[in-house]
Amino acid sequence: MRALPFLLLATAAAAQEPQSLLCTAKDGARFGIMLDAPSDFGPLHCVEAPSLRDTLVPCAPQGGWGLSAPDGMSLQSVTTDPAQARGERGIFFARLGPSELVASASSGPLPPLALEVAGDTFWRLRLTLATGEGLIATPEGEQAIRCEAL
To answer: Residue 135 burial (CB < 10 Å; 0-12/13-18/19+)?
Structure first.
């Protein structure tokens, strides 16, 4: 598989063109990231990490939150208003900036304490677009990842 320059990702995302990434964690696990994926809620950034699938729907609008339904199997709503970013089942945050993608997953009734943090944050991703290198942090520790544009 041939890697494409990551600077193209920021340009494509700004134009709201869907962009797919294939990522590999240090332990060999592979997962996908879709930037500006079309949905009924508008364009969403989604992460298909296996560690998130049974917990919540890992999709959110640019700089906002996706709130999973109580069953955790569907997206109930999306918001860019921190006061509305609360949910017992699961909250997913995503923000694509000019140099990095950040995303996090949390749960709980508390409103966000910072941009991506809400309630009990149990998963966080930070990906540098220029290199395709990043980290996923969970309560078990951090793991390096490497992503390539498809």
So the answer is: middle
Burial 37-54 (b: 16+ CB within 10 A, else e): eeeebebbbbbebebbee
pLDDT tens column, 59-105: 999 999 999 888 888 899 999 988 787 766 788 999 999 999 999 98
Taking CA atoms, 34 is separated from 23, 40, 107, 108, 149, in Å, by 11, 15, 22, 26, 10
**Residue 74 amino acid letter:** S
Contacts of 10-16 with C-beta under 8 Å, sequence gap 24+, read: 10/96, 10/97, 10/98, 10/99, 10/129, 12/36, 13/62, 13/96, 16/43
d(CA 5, CA 106): 31
Q: What's the rounded mean pLDDT across residues 103-126?
A: 67
Strand, coil or helix: 142? strand
Residue written as tokens 């009924």?
Answer: 40
96-132 CB burial, b ≥16 within 10 A, e <16: beeebbbbbbbbbeeebeeebbbbebbbbbbbebeeb
CA distance 43 to 34: 10
